[in-house]
Every structure is written in C-alpha cells, then in structure tokens.
Amino acid sequence: MKINAAIVGVGASKFGRFMPDTQLAMAAKALKEALDDSGLERDEIDGLSMHMGWPLGLDYDSVAEGLGLNIRYVNQAWTHGRFVTNTLQHAALAVSAGLANVVACVTAISFTRERDILGGPGDMEGYREGGGTHGEAPHYGLTSPAGGAALSMQRYMKLYGATSEKLAAVPIQIRQHALQNPDSVMKEPLTLEAHQTSRMVVDPLHLFDCCLMTDGAVVTLVTTRERARDLKQKPVAIAGMQGIRSGRDEFIFAPPGLGIGQQPATNIRSRPIDVEVFEAAGVTQSDVKGVYTYDAFSPLVLFVLERYGYCGEGEAADFVQNGAIGPGGRLPVNTNGGLLSEAHVAGWNHIREMTRQIRGTAGPRQIPNADVLQWGTVWGDSVILTAD
Amino acid sequence: MSFKQGITAKPRPRITPDHQPLWDGFKVHKLMLPYCEECGKPHLPPGPVCPYCLSDRLDWREASGCGTISTWVEVHKVWFPAFADDVPYNVIQVELAEGPRITANLIDFGGKIEVGQKVQATFDDVDEDLTMLRFKPA
C-alpha cells in the first residue's frame, strides 16, 4: 500500500501555563480552528488518532462523545513524545487504506496540572513493572525524562569534547525562533550567560536545556491527497515515513551507538535504517529546508542531527554553532520555538508550524521555498512533509 | 504498594520475579548475572529469556563486580522529598567487565566522577529486607 495522505487543516488552543480550560475545552477550540482552517465540516471527520489518554488525559471515547464526533476508526496512543509520530502515521495509514476519510489527530495537554507524574513520587511511569523508558532508577533517586537526556549528554561530552556552552547554542537559537512567534510562551531572548547561570537540574543539564511545562491543544486533520487538492488550503503531503526503531541498539534519548543503557558503543551514528525516510519521500538531506524535532531537552537536537546524517558522529555540537539552526541559518530547527520556547504541545505545535511553512504562511519565520521539511525524533521515527 | 510511597521514604526497588535473583545476590553481597546456557552471554536488565537467542535456559553466576563508568549524572533538583538532604547526588551507569551495564551510584570517591573510571561493586545493607548495590573507585 502506498501512503496517500496530506495534512489539510491545523488548529490550536491558546498555549500557556496554568490554563483554566479543561483538556476537552482546549481540544474543542483546536478542533473548531482546524475545521475552519481546512474548510471541512465536523461530520466529515470519521477517524480519530489520539495522542492523549490515560494517565495524563482523556481517551478517544470521551473526546468523540464530548465533541459530537461519529468515528469508525480509532488509534489510541498516550501523551508521550515517543507516540507523536506514530499518531500522525496511523492517520496517514488509515486514510490510505480507506479505513477513514478524514482523521483528526488530537492532543490536549494540561502538563501544569499533571506535572507530578513527570518525576518524583508521582512518576508511575518510572515505577511500573520493568521500569521506565528513560533509564529511571527511583531507588537511586533517578527519575524523570530529564535524567535520561542527562545520561546521554554526559557521555557525549566526554567522548566528543562537547561542552555545556556549545550545547547552549541549541536553546538560544530555538529561543530566537520563538521570539518571532506570537504564540510562544517565552518572550525574552536567551543569552549564553543566562543559560550558564541557570540552575542545574540534573548535571549536565541546566534549566534552559529542559523544555517548558505548559497546557495546550492542537488538532491536525489528515485526508487523502486527492481530497486535499479540493480543499481550502494548499495541501501538505505526507511524502515519506519511517517508524520507531527499537531493540537493544536503542535508548530513547540517545543516538545509535552512544552506549547508554544496553546500547552497543559504536562509532556508527547514522545507519541505513535511520535514513530510509528520505528514499521513501524521494528526497535527500540536502533537499530538506528545515528540521523539526521533539526538543524536550537540548541534547536531543544534537542527536537527531547525527542520526539522520546531517552531520557525522560527534560533530553536532559544532554543527549548531554560529547560527546554523536559528533564523536564517543553513538548517533551521523548530522555527516555531519548539518545546523549549514556544510550548510543550508534544510536538504537534511543530507539525502545525511545518504546515504553515509549507503553505508559505509562517510570517516573519518563513523559510524561503520551504517545500521539503523533516519531522524526525531521536528514537528514530520520521515523517517528511512536502508541498504537493 | 502505592506509587506515592516515596513521599516520606526513599522509593524501594520494584523487584519482579525476573529481577529477584539479582536482589537476592545483593543480600549476600554478590553481584549475580543471568548467563545464557545456550549462547553463553550474560544480559541485563534480567529478563525471562536470553534476549540474544531467546533461550529459557538461564544460569545465574557471580560476576567479578569490576566495571567502568559508562556515564553518570548528578541530580540537583529535589524530585523526591526523601532525597532532599542528599542533593546533589550521583547516579552512574557501569559497564561491567562481563559486558552488561547496570545503574547504581558511586560512593567513597574523591569528588570527581569520570566516564571511563574503574569501579568495584560494594553492598549497602539498608535494612533486613534490602541491600543496595553501590560502587566505589577500584
């Protein structure tokens, strides 16, 4: 089966901290905005791909019931960075296979109310049978996704001579993008000094290496490319996809071969299996005008640049210097301001931004001729979006 | 057992039947590893089968306790109230001489932790039900 799918509408609630709205209220606002954006009617949505649900949010049935949807295809993930991509991919697969005509990818997050789950005594993810996914060891006091990113960055620094000062180039440039986005929660420039003097969270990660904890919803509408051409907006084609890479070669917050957890320590950072998405989309890295990634922690951006072959093993900390990933840089990353500075809507705020970029409606953030963009995560799944 | 258990006390390890021999070993101050009797490889975390060849024939054998720090972190944020007096504290991953890596912490060291540092297992009897693995410089 060939993938035949396009993003035809995006909508969002307001993003912020301690938002008064329920998850369902934020989802309703995002859905209405996405419908308005696409020109579709609510009754045309017959599929739901959920990137929310227990333990952080509502499941598909509450959302369908609350928003008055009549659904014949559901994919249910839970609010976890690992499941952004496959939530979008399930939508693409469902419309390609005819299981649904229009799939709404829904996320609505209230992290400021639910944050106790993200580390400490309330971290049931880290305390479940067999343990958490980020290297958690609660009995040694290691908890929270931040710990996993820190484990990887510490070894990376030692192996390749990267420093916290070099790493700071990531959040500083992503903040520069954010300052051009009125939806961004962070409104002030980030300086190297502010980064370096910010409190240490888990060495080697400073406060500004860690993303925001915010509330917000995004709805993304997916249908076939044929249908997309008849709708209101310039279609954004899902041109190629690859799934999560998993096995003993992988640790969620490390590139292949870094040697975290049970990963083999090798000097091979980008394997053929890591770059299949480019062939699937009929493009190469040099065609990609911007990279979008799950920047929950600044090291993840470095690891993504190496996994997808934008630079070699151990080279990313140098690659990102001198404005390379910032506004007007040679490879802009997360032009919306990312999870680090726009808001943590799990990456769906990035998908919304990619849609705007390909439509050419990103305003002051517009990448010239943004016809090919990559969404790719540190755990290896990816989607290439193109102008149809 | 509630996941909120760590509010006043440090969290206890969650020991599944697959992990039990590891923790039983700590109690008698031995670092035990599950070896596959088919392919000969040890693995961690302890699983019900050999992850390399899927054999059920596992044999727990005492390991040397020698290893190298493969990575480490120092936790500054007080995520667990019960660790408030300990911050900042370290957590290390150790690549054992036998190959698999294990998470623990480093004690009795001179203030500096390095990737590549040689370490030796030591055992801390927390109470009559729990002995924790820790490492000290070799």
Topology, please?
The complex is a heterodimer of chains A (388) and B (138).
Chain A: E1 6-12, H1 23-38, E2 47-50, H2 60-67, E3 73-76, H3 84-97, E4 103-110, H4 111-114, H5 124-127, H6 144-160, H7 164-167, H8 169-178, H9 192-197, E5 200-203, E6 205-206, E7 215-223, H10 225-229, E8 236-242, H11 276-281, E9 290-292, H12 298-307, H13 316-319, H14 338-342, H15 348-359, E10 372-376, E11 382-387
Parallel strand pairs in A: 2-3, 2-4, 9-10
Antiparallel strand pairs in A: 1-7, 1-8, 4-7, 5-6, 8-11, 10-11
Chain B: H1 20-27, E1 32-36, E2 58-62, E3 66-75, E4 89-96, E5 101-104, E6 118-127, E7 130-137
Antiparallel strand pairs in B: 1-2, 3-4, 3-6, 4-5, 6-7
What does this entry look like structurally?
The complex is a heterodimer of chains A (388) and B (138). Chain A has 388 residues and is α/β, with parallel strands linked by helices. Chain A has two domains: 6-115 and 214-237, Thiolase/Chalcone synthase (Peroxisomal Thiolase, Chain A, domain 1), CATH 3.40.47; 142-213 and 240-387, 3-Layer(aba) Sandwich (Peroxisomal Thiolase, Chain A, domain 1), CATH 3.40.47. Chain A contains 15 helices and eleven strands. In chain A, the strands form two sheets. Chain A has a nine-stranded mixed β-sheet. In chain A, a hairpin with a 1-residue loop joins strand 5 and strand 6 (205-206). The radius of gyration of chain A is 19 Å and the shape is globular. Chain A starts with 5 loop residues before the first strand and ends with a strand. Chain B is mainly beta and 138 residues long. Chain B has one domain: OB fold (Dihydrolipoamide Acetyltransferase, E2P) (Beta Barrel), CATH 2.40.50. In chain B, 6% of the residues lie in helices and 36% in strands. Chain B has one helix and seven strands; from the N terminus they run αβββββββ. In chain B, the strands form two sheets. A five-stranded antiparallel β-sheet of chain B has the order 5-4-3-6-7, covered by helices on one side. Chain B has a two-stranded antiparallel ribbon with strand order 1-2. In chain B, a hairpin with a 2-residue loop joins strand 6 and strand 7. The termini of chain B are far apart. The mean pLDDT of chain B is 94. Strand 5 (200-203) of chain A pairs antiparallel with strand 3 (66-75) of chain B, so a sheet runs across the interface.
